[in-house]
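User: Show me an example of a complex going from sequences to C-alpha cells.

Assistant: Sure. Here are the input components:
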Amino acid sequence: MIAVPTRCIDCAVRDVALCASMSDDELRALSDMGRRRVLPAGQVVSWAGEPSSSCASVVSGALKATASTADGREQIVGLLFPGDFVGQPFQDDASLTVTTLVATDLCIYPRAGFEHVVDDHPRMERLLLERTLASLSQARGRMLSLARRSAKERVAGFLLELADHTGESGPDGIRVRIPISRGDLADYLGLTIETVSRQLTLLKASGVLGVARGGRDCTIRDRARLEGVAGPQ
Amino acid sequence: MIAVPTRCIDCAVRDVALCASMSDDELRALSDMGRRRVLPAGQVVSWAGEPSSSCASVVSGALKATASTADGREQIVGLLFPGDFVGQPFQDDASLTVTTLVATDLCIYPRAGFEHVVDDHPRMERLLLERTLASLSQARGRMLSLARRSAKERVAGFLLELADHTGESGPDGIRVRIPISRGDLADYLGLTIETVSRQLTLLKASGVLGVARGGRDCTIRDRARLEGVAGPQ
DNA sequence: CGAACTGTTGAAGTTGATCAAGTCCGGTGG
DNA sequence: CCACCGGACTTGATCAACTTCAACAGTTCG
C-alpha cells in the first residue's frame, strides 16, 4: 500500500463520488479522515463476515463485490468503478468480499467517522440514499437476468451494457474492452467460464462480434443483431 | 377500494413501518396525506414503466414486486409484508410491477408529498436509508441463490426462511404456511411450477416435510435434515 | 355435478455444467 | 533467439438438472 497525499479539490472523482454533495469547505471533515491508498490487482479490500470497519470511494481502477456460499460457489453481485462507493455503512459485519480487479486507488474512511459525516451532512445522506436506491434497482434487474435469461442473452446483454457505458465507436463498429477475466465474467453472469467462452465464440462466428487476440478487446460489428440476441429489453 | 379512516396512533404498523421514526406530533404531516385503502387479492398497485406517483406502507396483507422481460418472463424480486415500504421514491418511473397477493390494507401517500416529508424528517430519511441498505443486502443474497443454488437448495432455503419468519412450533415439527401459490413461488425462486412441485414432493417423500391438503400448510418435521438439503448457508 | 383452478406426475427435450484435452500467449531463462 | 513453463482461454464429449409439453388429480364453488 502506498499513501497518496492529495487535496480533495484536485481529486479525479471530486464531482462524481459522494463528495460531490459537499462544498469545498465541508470537504475538510472528510478530507481529514480519508486516506488514499493504491492497491495492486487481486487484493481483498474487505472479507465477508469480518467486521466492516471502513468505507471508501473508488478514485481509479475497478473492484468486484462477491457473495459466496459456504462451499465456495461465488457470485459477483456488483462491479465498482471510479466514483462508486464501497462499503456497508450502518451494518456491523460485511456480507460481501470486495476485491480489486486491477490496480486501484481508493479514498478510505473509517466507517464510524464516515457515518458521522453522513449524520452531519443531509445532502450527502440524500445522495447516498439515492445511490442505494439505484443500486437496489440494478440488483433487481440482475435478479431477473440471472433467473430468467439464457446464457446467450446474458452475454449479449453484458456486451451492450459495456457498449453503453464505455464503448467507443470505431471504423468497423463499437469498440469495447471487457474489463475482467473470463472467470470473473462467468461469476458475474452466473455462468461457467466454458459457457461464456462458447457464447462469445458463437457471436464471433455469426459475425456480430469481433474478438481481438487476448480475448479482451472486442468490436461490436452489428449492434442491432446483438440486441436481437440479447432478447427483449 | 374502500376508504378506511383511521388515526395513525391506532395503526397496526405504527411501530414497525417507517412511521416508527416519527413522534405522534410529527405524524400529523403524514397522516393528513396518507389514504388507507383495502385492495382485493390480485390487484396491481403499480405498473412497471408508468410514472410512479405514490408510495405506501403495508398495513396488512402481502404483495409481490415483479420485474419482467418484454416477452413476459417474470421474476418476483421482493415480497412485501406488513410494515414494509412500497414504492420507489426519487425515481420518476416505476421499474417494478407491484401486485397484491391477498386482500391488502395499504397506507398510501402521494410520492411528492412523501418525499417532502422525508426532506423534513431526518430520522425518517435515515430509517429509509437503513431499510434500503437492508433490501440491497437481501437482493444480493438472492442474486447468489438464483445464480448458484440448485432447485432443491432454493426450495429448502425458502422453507427455512419461512420457518424463521413466521414458523410456529407444533407437535410434530415447525408449522409454516406458504403464503403464495406454486406459480408465485416458482416466480420467486426462479424456477418453474413443476420443478417447485417436484422438489416439495421429494421433501415430503423423504419425510423431512409434511404437506397438508391444499399444499399450502406444511410441517417441517426435521429441520436439521432440511438444513442439510438447503446446503451451506 | 361440472367448470375452472391449482397442483401433481410423467416422458421427452434442452440448456448449461462438468470433465478432459488442447491452444494461445506472455514471460523466463538457457 | 528459441525452448519451455504457467495461466488464461477455447473446444469437444458427456452428463445432469431443469424445462417443456402433456395428461391427470384435487379442490372450490357455482
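The lines above are the inputs; the final block is the predicted structure for all four components together. Residues 122-148 of chain B form the longest helix (27 residues).
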